[in-house]
Amino acid sequence: MSQGEQRPPEGGHGPVDCSEALSRLFDFLDAEIDELDGDRIRQHLADCEPCLSEYDVEDHLKKLVRRSCHEAAPAELHLRIRQQLTVLQIQVDERG
Q1: What's residue 77's pLDDT?
Q2: Is residue 94 predicted with pLDDT exceeding 50?
């Protein structure tokens, strides 16, 4: 994406850039986004080797955790983790 190009907002119809793809990676892996956004992220992953590598790492980690954990985490824990990840992502974005 060139400097003059504007990134479409999340849920937009244009191509996804690396920042959006990576920020929505967990939602994508968990199938928590709509079909159109999923298609946009899939297309980006097909075209971007660094993002595809990150996807592969996260997907592999998720599968390892799933295989290793037989108990379901409480919903409150899931929510707290998601909130903390959001806070950390905002901090990273502000630095970056």
Answers
A1: 94
A2: yes
Q: What does pLDDT average to over the chain?
A: 86
Q: Dihedral of CA 41/46/48/52: which sign? A: positive
- SS3 of 12-79: the string is CCCCCCHHHHHHCHHHHHCCCCCHHHHHHHHHHHHHCHHHHHHHHHHHHHHHHHHHHCCCCCCHHHHH
Residues 1-27, mean pLDDT to the nearest whole number = 70
| CB-count exposure of residue 72 (10 Å: 0-12, 13-18, 19+) | exposed
Question: Could you give the CA distance from residue 38 to residue 25 in angstroms, rounded to a whole number?
Answer: 10
**CA 62 to chain CA centroid, nearest Å:** 13
Distance CA 44, CA 22 (A): 10
pTM of this structure: 0.58
Q: Which residues contact 1 (CB under 8 A, 6 or more apart)?
A: 7, 17
